[in-house]
Structures are given as C-alpha cells and as structure tokens.
Q: What sequence folds into this?
C-alpha cells in the first residue's frame, strides 16, 4: 500500500523553528533598522525611514508591531527565510495568515529568490493584505509553473511582507507557509 | 499562577460534561469547583472527575439541596477556591484555544482582574466572530480591541465597565475578590451586575485582552435563566441601587453606570412579558428620578444620542403597554 499523498511539506526548518519560537514564547523589544525576532524571521527597513517603536510576541501569537517613523524612505519588510532551492516538483507556494490593525493599510507579499550573480528576483503574489480591526484570514499562493520570473533553482528564498513606509500598528497573529 | 474554574450548575449535566471535556483538552484548570445548585438528579463527583480528566482531589463538588441561583452558587464556590486566580464559567460556555495562551501571558503579571473578549453566537447571523456590536464598540472606545494584553487606564475602564455584565469574561485574582468582599447578588437574574461593577470600581490594576477566549451560546428558545422574562426582572433595581450607592460613596464618575443602566432598562423593557411592562416602567422611572442626576443628561446625549429618546419613549406612561 502506497503512502497517502502529502498535501504540504515543511519548507524551511529554520523558518518553522523561528515561527514556532515566536508562537511558543513571550518576547519583546524595540524596533530598529534591522530586528531579528527569531531565526529566519527579521524586519529590515530602509535607513532614511528612521524607524522606531516596539514589538512584542505574546504567547500563541507571532508579532505585535508598533512602528513609528521619523523620516521618508522607500521600503520596510518582514523577511521570512525559506529553504526551498528547487521548485521542480512544486506547483504552488503560498501562505495563510491572520492579523489585525486599527487602520486599513496595505501589505504586499512577495517571494524573493536569490540569483547566482548575487542579485535577486521578486515575484509578488496577486493579492495584498489589507489590515483591519477585525481578524480576517488571508490566503494566497503563487502558481509556480506559470510564474515566469520565478527561477526553478535558487540559492536562497524568502517570503517578504512589504509593509507600508509609514507608521504602522499591525498585530500578526499567525502565519503558515505551504507548498504542494 | 494557579487557576480555579468555578461553575454553577442546575439541571445542566450534558452541557457541564461538554465543558469539562473541553477544559480537559485545553489543560488550563488547576482546580475545578462545581456547585450543583439543586439539580433534580444530583451530580456525581467521580463522573465529573472522569470528564475533566482530573484527580479527585482537584475537583470540589458542592451541592445546594434547593436551587438558590447562580449568584449564590458562585459565592459558595469562592469559599472553596484554592487557586490564586479564578474564572467563573457557566455550564453551557465553551472556552476556546485562546484561553491557555492568555494564561501564559498573564503568568507573572500583577493584576486584580483581566477582562477578555468572547464570541456571542448571536453574531453568527452576520457571520461575525466576536461580541455583540455594542460591546465591540465599547472595546474599540477603550482602545483595547487590539492587543493580546493591554493595561486598562481609567478612561478605558470607563468604557469597558459599560459592556454587558458577564461573570465569565474575567480572570480574577482570588485575593482581590476576597479582600474587597466582591460577590454576586442573590437574585435569579442580573445576579452578576454587582460582581461586574464592584470589580471595576475596586480594582487598582486591570488588564484587557483582545483574545476571544470563550464562546457564549444564546438560544432565545431555551428555558435557561437568561431567557426568563417574568417578575424576577423587576428585582434588577435592588442590585442597581447597591451599585449606585457604592458609586456615590466612592465619589466615582456616575456617567458610565448611567449609560449602562439606561441600556439595560431598554433591553429589559424590550424583552419583558407584555403584562409586566407597565410595572417595570413605573419602577424604572422612579429609579431614574432617584439615581440619575439630570445634569448628566447632556453627557448621556453626547455619548449615546439614541438612548434617551428610546428610554423616554419606553417609559412614557401614555405609551406603556
């Protein structure tokens, strides 16, 4: 008897450990240009934004972000490292998340793949996350065979959540990444 | 932090067993105190321990031979609480998976009580997950609708104390209730108004959590106490008087209680048996004349523009049913 087909697989041990650590523990700190919340889970911001503020990871949840800014800049993103070098057998890469924010703001998810020359290529998912006061699930996926810029083999990959380059209060209750 | 969960029960064993099974799965109760409030078939200690997956010494079963009401049952339970913290539940409640992480967040914190959000099954008509709309607005007004654990300052408390007076959405420090002599009234319904209000009035440190830790089931067709719409509802003014006197003695801001009471009077009047509306309106008018300073009405109108016209219409002697 053959084993039951797997519907998803563990994409990245580091990422899973990092998210699990955030879910299981209670930690807090200050927001800076780079914050490593847990292995494979970081916030990186464009320096001119002059980011500040605080973050907290409550029990059973991922991150409560309260980000202030003193300047103008171009980008700020939550980086989630993936160990997913070869996509030959993968049809979909996606994620589900839930969170809340007091105001409606847009977060743009993107799969970033490293290139051999040291650069990278970004594939944005079709749907943006709209923060809102009530927790609503957001699920989206990339169809790998028809996502032309997506290299089948890459030395590294990340799921990026591009945050708006403006003050933000966003509580990311949970996030899970899947591939099938 | 050790948590005792206290549950009053009257002829409600199937729901109680469902609740105990849920608590066993969540693994968050260090002690259970069940008060069998005059059930026709007395509850069995061993069966409850099995359902809760707890050793016998961690489940205390008390019994009132005649039903005295959930308030008296909760007060009886308090005397037997071993945990340093206490959560009252009703037998038909169901805690969610958010309760254990809330307890983890609370461990090591100093607080008199922590109020958390709940899901009211009436919200499901509109496919919403969370409390009824008015409570939702009050949580937003308090600024506590977002955040796993938020300290509640005086302004936020003034909003949260106007939410429905549920006993099962607060984790209490046991010593806080005992030191302040805070308990429920011996009424069949509205027995929890004093618990709710005196907690807010007496607490030095309140926390709030946006976690939805409990599902509250409302079945308008059932025969539960919540659905009693008879003369027992007229007794509400006894407990409202006690709270009003407490607020006056403390020289606390009377506006939140006035807003709460006006909303409650409107709710009772709207649900009461038709033949009781006239005597209820008479008592309500008397109570409002005695207890609500007319100087408060501009502030009431500003906070809840709809409420006074509604109450005036309900209590108009010419319109009384």
A:
């Amino acid at each position: 008897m053959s084993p039951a087909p797997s519907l998803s697989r563990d994409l990245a041990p580091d990422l899973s450990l990092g998210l699990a650590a955030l879910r299981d523990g209670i930690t807090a700190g200050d927001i800076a240009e780079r914050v490593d919340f847990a292995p494979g889970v970081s916030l990186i911001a464009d320096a001119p934004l002059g980011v500040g503020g605080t973050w907290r990871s409550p029990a059973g949840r991922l991150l409560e972000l309260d980000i202030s800014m003193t300047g103008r800049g171009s980008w700020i993103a939550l980086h989630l490292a993936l160990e997913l070098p070869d996509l030959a057998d993968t049809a979909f890469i996606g994620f589900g998340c839930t969170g809340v924010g007091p105001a409606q703001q847009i977060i743009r998810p993107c799969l970033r793949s490293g290139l051999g020359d040291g650069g990278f290529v970004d594939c944005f998912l079709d749907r943006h996350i709209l923060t809102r006061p009530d927790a609503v699930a957001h699920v989206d996926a990339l169809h790998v065979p028809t996502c032309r810029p997506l290299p089948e083999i890459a030395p590294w990959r990340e799921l990026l959540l591009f945050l708006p380059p403006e003050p933000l209060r966003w509580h990311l209750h949970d996030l899970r990444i899947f591939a099938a | 932090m050790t948590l005792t969960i206290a549950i009053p029960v009257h002829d409600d064993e199937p729901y109680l067993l469902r609740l105990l099974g849920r608590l066993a799965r969540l693994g968050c109760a260090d002690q259970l105190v069940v008060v069998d409030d005059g059930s026709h078939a007395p509850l069995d200690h061993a069966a409850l321990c099995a359902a809760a997956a707890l050793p016998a010494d961690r489940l205390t079963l008390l019994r009132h031979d005649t039903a005295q009401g959930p308030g008296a049952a909760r007060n009886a339970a308090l005397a037997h609480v071993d945990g340093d913290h206490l959560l009252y539940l009703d037998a038909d409640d169901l805690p969610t998976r958010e309760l254990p992480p809330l307890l983890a967040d609370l461990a090591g914190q100093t607080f008199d009580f922590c109020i958390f959000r709940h899901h009211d099954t009436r919200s499901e008509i509109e496919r919403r997950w969370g409390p009824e709309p008015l409570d939702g607005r009050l949580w937003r007004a308090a600024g506590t609708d977002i955040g796993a654990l938020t300290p509640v300052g005086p302004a936020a408390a003034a909003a949260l104390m106007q939410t429905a007076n549920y006993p099962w959405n607060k984790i209490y420090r046991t010593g806080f209730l005992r030191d302040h002599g805070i308990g429920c009234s011996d009424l069949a319904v509205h027995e929890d108004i004093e618990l709710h209000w005196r907690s807010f009035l007496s607490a030095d440190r309140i926390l709030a959590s946006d976690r939805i830790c409990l599902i509250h089931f409302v079945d308008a067709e059932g025969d539960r106490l919540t659905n009693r719409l008879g003369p027992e509802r007229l007794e509400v003014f006894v407990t409202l008087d006690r709270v009003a006197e407490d607020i006056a003695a403390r020289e606390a801001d009377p506006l939140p209680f006035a807003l709460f009471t006006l909303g409650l009077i409107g709710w009772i009047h709207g649900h009461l048996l038709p033949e009781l509306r006239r005597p209820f309106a008479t008592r309500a008018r008397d109570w409002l004349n005695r207890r609500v300073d007319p100087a408060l009405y501009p502030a009431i109108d500003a906070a809840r523009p709809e409420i006074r016209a509604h109450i005036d219409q309900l209590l108009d002697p010419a319109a009384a049913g």
Notes: Residues 24 and 60 of chain A are 6 Å apart (CA to CA). Chain A has one domain: 13-179. The longest strand of chain A covers residues 168-179. Residues 13-179 of chain A form a domain with the Jelly Rolls fold (CATH 2.60.120.260).
